[in-house]
Amino acid sequence: MVFGLGAPELLVILCIVIFIYGGKRVADVGRGLGESVTQFKKAFRPESEQVQDVEFHEVTPPDDDPAPDGEKGE
């Protein structure tokens, strides 16, 4: 409940707003509001969660032979 209003009251208010402003304008306002909320949340997200496009490469282990090439231990 928002401000003591239930679902039926909010539905009536929504119908009145759509009737007055038209569906396209209400959709545009809703889209803009959604984008604003997304940007607001993104601004307050810690940097550790904002990692973008991280590439992982396969790592190959080094050879078990510690001697340099050409100096085999004989």
TrEMBL record:
It is found in: Membrane. Keywords: Membrane, Protein transport, Translocation, Transmembrane, Transmembrane helix, Transport. The chain crosses the membrane at residues 6-23. The keyword Transcription does not apply. InterPro entries: TatA/B/E (IPR003369). GO terms for cellular component: membrane. This is Sec-independent protein translocase protein TatA. Residues 46-74 are annotated as: Disordered. It holds the Pfam family TatA_B_E. GO terms for biological process: protein transport. Residues 46-60 have a biased composition (Basic and acidic residues). It comes from Desulfacinum hydrothermale DSM 13146. Its main location: membrane. It is a single-pass membrane protein.
